[in-house]
């Protein structure tokens, strides 16, 4: 997870450079490569854990706290990248937003795997330690699915043809309506006070 977040920091720097020098397609390829590398390394480690027997996870509280912090930060970054990417019609920011979604799923899987491993240690059931690599393998397939979808979108369209509206997040459906109601409520109270 920590290595994945380091790769995300590198990707953000590359996105900035790519936007400045109009090299979004190259940056998309780099982001896809980083996502593929992450998925592949997780897959290899997970398969190794299954064959050689997974070890119990220690420091579960620290792992859960760090993973929750990662979820919070990645949710914020996903919303920001998706919004700015759609507004500026920038496919590299959209690809990075999808990568942030993968990081959120990865963090949830880390929490689930750590808790199940800890439960197995507490109950004396060693089989529970296998849940962590099994969940990680499932996450790898989700990562590869996202990579495939990004590649498909890049191949089937150029930057002008990408349907940026299809990258709408669930919160966006009602976000504008809530903001509009809130603004009208705040200003209607102020208007009433001024006229009374």
Number of helices: 6
Question: Which structural category fits the helices and strands?
Answer: mainly alpha
**What's the alpha carbon Rg, rounded to whole Å?**
21 Å
**Helix and strand succession?**
HHHHHH
The major beta sheet can be summarized as: none
Outline type: globular
**Total DSSP E strands:** 0
Overview in brief:
The chain has 196 residues and is mostly helical.
Q: Overview of this structure, please?
A:
The termini are far apart. This protein has 6 helices and no strands. Helix 2 runs parallel beside helix 4 and helix 4 (91-123) runs antiparallel to helix 5 (131-156). The protein is mostly helical and 196 residues long. The radius of gyration is 21 Å and the shape is globular.
Key words describing this protein structure:
about 200 residues, mainly alpha, about 80% helix, globular
Helix-strand layout with pairing:
Elements: H1 2-20, H2 24-52, H3 60-88, H4 91-123, H5 131-156, H6 172-195
Helix pairs in contact: 1-2, 1-4, 2-4, 2-5, 3-4, 4-5
């Amino acid at each position: 997870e920590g290595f994945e977040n380091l790769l995300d920091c590198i990707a953000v720097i590359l996105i900035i450079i790519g936007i400045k020098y109009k090299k979004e397609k190259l940056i998309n390829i780099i982001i896809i490569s980083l996502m593929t590398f992450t998925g592949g390394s997780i897959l290899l480690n997970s398969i190794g854990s299954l064959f050689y027997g997974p070890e119990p996870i220690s420091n579960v509280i620290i792992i859960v706290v760090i993973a929750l912090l990662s979820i919070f930060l990645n949710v914020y970054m996903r919303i920001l990248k998706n919004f700015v990417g759609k507004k500026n019609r920038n496919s590299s920011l959209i690809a990075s937003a999808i990568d942030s979604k993968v990081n959120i799923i990865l963090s949830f899987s880390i929490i689930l795997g750590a808790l199940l491993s800890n439960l197995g240690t507490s109950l004396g059931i060693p089989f529970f330690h296998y849940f962590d690599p099994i969940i990680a393998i499932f996450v790898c397939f989700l990562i590869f699915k996202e990579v495939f979808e990004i590649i498909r979108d890049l191949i089937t369209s150029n930057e002008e043809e990408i349907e940026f509206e299809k990258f709408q997040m669930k919160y966006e459906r009602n976000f504008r309506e809530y903001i509009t109601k809130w603004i009208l409520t705040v200003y209607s109270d102020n208007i009433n006070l001024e006229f009374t």
